[in-house]
Amino acid sequence: MTITDEDDTDVDHRGATRDEVAATPGNLVSDSLTMARRNLLRILRTPQIILFTVAGPIVFVVLFNVVFGGSIGTNELDYIDFLIPGVLIQTAVFDGTNTAVAIAQDLQRGSVDRFRSLPMQRSAVLFGRIAADIVRATFTAIVVTLIGLALGFRPSEGPLMLVAVIGLVVAFGSVFNWAYAYLGLLVKTPEAVESAGYLPIFPLVFAASTFAPVENMPDWMQPFAAHQPVTVTVDAARAMLHGGDVISALAQSAVWIVVLTVLFASASIRRFERM
């Protein structure tokens, strides 16, 4: 399978038609990697995407650190050390909307119809999209970490644990890539997807320990805030970076990641196959 340009894809399985391509894991991996390459090339050829992808998290880090740094109690942690794990997770969650918009654009432009007519695994369109967005999320997480280090962020558990946290952030973000892939397949209009995409994630991101301790929230909100997936993942990242109860929070986060990934990935693939 070879890419000819950023919008059109020619697939070469030695002259096979789409129906003759065997549904093997090898073909799926190969086709998915080719689609991921196509998507990454489109990102690289659109510098504005890279600029706005990293600009938002940088603004959040600087603004929240300046505005709330001296007013929110975070026990023994400096606020910048408390903030960076939250911004890493928040950025990974918000990046899922890019997946929905990209899928909706491909549907609207007819690119998906062309891909589905080619001798390739149909679900490779989705896997390639998710893979490309995981690469972008990794890049963004590294940028946020570097900005944090420049502003005084100092993880106490060493560089290897920092790398592990970036891995956790990317894994958690992939959950929302799949969730928003499903949204993009449902809504199909980029403008509508972009508007609707933020509604469900605002409660998850802000009714959580992302920017302030759960203990500071109203009593009626705390049960939800303490156990929802964003909070347990942020808490796991903070414990990994600064010490604390890693096992409990990380185990809860892992359960959320596995369950939600299976749920949304299977729903997205089924939806795509039936279109």
What does this structure look like?
It is built from 12 helices and 2 strands; from the N terminus they run E-E-H-H-H-H-H-H-H-H-H-H-H-H. Residues 1-21 have low confidence and may be disordered. By secondary structure, it is mostly helical. It starts with a strand and ends with a helix.
How many β-strand stretches? 2
**Main sheet, how many strands, which sense, barrel?**
2 strands, antiparallel
The overall pLDDT average reads: 86
> Which regions have little confidence, pLDDT < 50, spanning 5+ residues?
1-21
Provide the helix percentage: over 70%
| Helix-strand pattern | EEHHHHHHHHHHHH
Kindly provide the radius of gyration, computed on alpha-carbon positions and rounded to a whole number of angstroms: 20 Å
Read across the widest sheet, the strand sequence of neighbours is 1-2
Shape: elongated
- In whole angstroms, the N-to-C terminal distance is 23 Å
Number of helices: 12
Structural class based on helices, strands and sheet pairing = mainly alpha
Percent range for β-strand residues = under 5%
Summary?
The chain has 275 residues and is mostly helical. The chain contains 12 helices and 2 strands. The protein is elongated, with a radius of gyration of 20 Å.
Which helices and strands, and how do they pair?
Blueprint lengths: L1 E2 L5 E2 L14 H20 L2 H22 L10 H16 L1 H14 L1 H6 L7 H27 L8 H29 L2 H8 L3 H6 L15 H6 L1 H14 L3 H29 L1
Antiparallel strand pairs: 1-2
Helix pairs in contact: 1-6, 2-3, 2-6, 3-6, 3-7, 3-11, 4-6, 4-7, 4-8, 6-7, 7-8, 7-11, 7-12, 11-12
